[in-house]
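At this stage, I put together a protein sequence along with its fold in token form, as given directly below:
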Amino acid sequence: MKFSHARQRFYQEINRPDEQINLAKAALYIAQEQFLSLDPEEYLNALDEMAAEVLERLDEQRYPLKVIKILNQYLFEDLGFEGNRSNYYDPNNSFLNQVIDRRTGIPITLSVVYLEITKLIDFPMVGIGMPGHFLVRPDFEGAGIYVDVFNQGEILFPEDCQVKLTEVYGQQVKLRPQFLTPVTSRQILARMLTNLKVIYMNTGEILKAVSAIERILLLFPEAQNERRDRGILYYQLERWTEARQDLEIYLKNQPQAQDAMIIRQLLSRMNADR
């Protein structure tokens, strides 16, 4: 398979130890497949400039809450970053260049901006992939606080995360310890791509959904559910050879899957049409 220039750069960036992945770069390479003239360096420079401005406002005593307060004031009050509540499922919310240009996005992409700036000012934070929402927190033992970047950098304690989880699902959902576990750069990128995949599947943009899945599989080659979903999309596109290959591999690895019978029926239909 011949990759586009953006796809090649994305693959090169993620094909290294997770702690060495430049999250902002990889996210911009995702966007570059949609915005062909995008210059990643332009947006990396913009993030550098934001970080430099924050550094000017910091003094030598960098208490976590003080750093977060200054960062919040700069991003949300001075620059006007905010969560896009009016058009949450706009795919532009998942492209880092658009988030920086428009000053709006969804929790995970706004968090990528936040994480990149904190990395550049040497105040490392980590992403927290809570179900249905995305948070960040300082990267040190016992930090005890979380930041909701989608909500203007609101400071949360674990009890608040429980409330947030209930709000997201509209019912009582027990907050499990693993919900507040830091996620890797690969997991963040996969979650961004999953958001795009779902949006494109819902709008019937099948080729774009396939493209998102292809990149998820670059991140996690053994993600069998993604391979199944790609096979089904290939089936819808009547690309029988590719559909058959993905679905057969899925069944081989997941022979007892709940949807195994449905997948076998799809394969039978394709084999009948040969």
In short: The first strand starts at residue 82 and ends at 83. The chain is about 60% helix and 5% strand. The mean pLDDT is 94.
